[in-house]
């Protein structure tokens, strides 16, 4: 394959002051794209821009919390004002407010859903309007999570938002196909502020911070690595090499890349004339419910010492 070249393309990456978002912004810029960096902290955003420009890339900062239509319009407008167009949107911005259901407040739920789900919706809508007006297609890359694919204890708000993001990617891939705008969800797994406190990962992440490599059981078995390990997927999906890829959920982390399945029926049973509660009770465990689906993110398989 020829080198991935995004020269002439303009991108917006929300929540790109640090962590995964910064890695995505760096990867896009390294392959020639001009990038609007977004964060709620001006100093963090400006430092991110500095790191990109010092590496030879082109970037500007737009400091605004995503969620509202006004914020989305500002981000798209900044790309157009600075670079003349918008070709790529990466919706990475997010926060956590983890609590079990009976302790989660309305504010906990609303804050996470507003940033992740509504922020993805408003930014994607504004980007789609611009991309359709300018013609030539475009790329929407929506950032999901294993929690949205499988559920996760203590993350009602986050899991619900990320599941919704995957559903929006499938829906928008159909709606925007005629405009040649691809839409995919990515499912990254990396050592970030959101994951490095997981007890099973913590000692390995701490060792990595000290310069030690992550072991293969994490990089390959769990698909867990650094934010930079996840970044290659973004310029690939933004490139002409990925023009035929849309409506997918793609996982990446460590040494692993994977395609997630869409929800689908796995087993069915039938009753002439329809089902009664009693018939369901009688048939469930030997037919459609014989192998119930698992939930939650599987615990890491840590090798015995």
From TrEMBL:
PROSITE patterns per UniProt: ADH_SHORT (PS00061)
Listed InterPro entries: KR_dom, NAD(P)-bd_dom_sf, Peroxisomal_Beta-Oxidation, Sc_DH/Rdtase_CS, SDR_fam
PANTHER family in UniProt: DEHYDROGENASES, SHORT CHAIN (PTHR45024), SCP2 DOMAIN-CONTAINING PROTEIN (PTHR45024:SF2)
Source superkingdom: Bacteria
Record's keyword terms, sorted: Oxidoreductase
Protein name, as recorded: 3-oxoacyl-ACP reductase
Pfam families referenced in this protein's UniProt entry, alphabetically: adh_short_C2 (PF13561)
Family designation: Belongs to the short-chain dehydrogenases/reductases (SDR) family.
GO molecular function, one term: oxidoreductase activity
Ketoreductase domain boundaries: 9-192
């Amino acid at each position: 394959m020829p080198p991935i070249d995004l020269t002439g393309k303009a991108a917006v990456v929300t929540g790109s002051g640090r962590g995964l978002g910064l890695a995505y912004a760096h990867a896009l810029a390294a392959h020639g794209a001009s990038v609007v960096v977004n964060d709620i902290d001006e100093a963090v955003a400006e430092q991110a821009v500095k790191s990109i420009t010092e590496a030879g890339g082109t970037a500007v900062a737009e400091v605004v919390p995503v969620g509202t239509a006004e914020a989305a319009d500002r981000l798209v407008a900044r790309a157009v004002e600075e670079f003349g167009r918008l070709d790529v949107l990466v919706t990475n911005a997010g926060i956590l407010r983890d609590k079990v259901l009976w302790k989660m407040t309305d504010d906990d739920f609303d804050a996470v859903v507003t940033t992740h789900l509504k922020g993805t919706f408003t930014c994607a809508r504004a980007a789609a309007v611009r991309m359709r007006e300018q013609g030539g297609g475009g790329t929407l890359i929506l950032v999901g999570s294993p929690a949205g694919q499988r559920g996760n204890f203590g993350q009602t708000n986050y899991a619900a938002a990320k599941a919704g993001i995957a559903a929006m990617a499938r829906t928008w891939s159909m709606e925007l196909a005629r405009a040649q705008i691809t839409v995919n969800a990515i499912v990254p797994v990396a050592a970030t502020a959101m994951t490095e406190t997981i007890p099973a990962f913590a000692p390995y992440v701490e060792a990595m911070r000290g310069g030690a490599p992550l072991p293969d059981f994490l990089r390959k078995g769990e698909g867990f690595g650094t934010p930079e390990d996840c970044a290659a997927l973004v310029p690939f999906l933004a490139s002409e090499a990925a023009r035929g890829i849309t409506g997918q959920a793609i996982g990446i982390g460590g040494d692993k890349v994977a395609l997630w399945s869409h929800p689908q029926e796995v087993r069915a049973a039938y009753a002439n004339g329809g089902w009664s509660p009693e018939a369901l009770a009688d048939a469930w465990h030997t037919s459609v419910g014989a192998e119930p689906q698992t939930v939650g993110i599987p615990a890491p398989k840590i090798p015995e010492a």
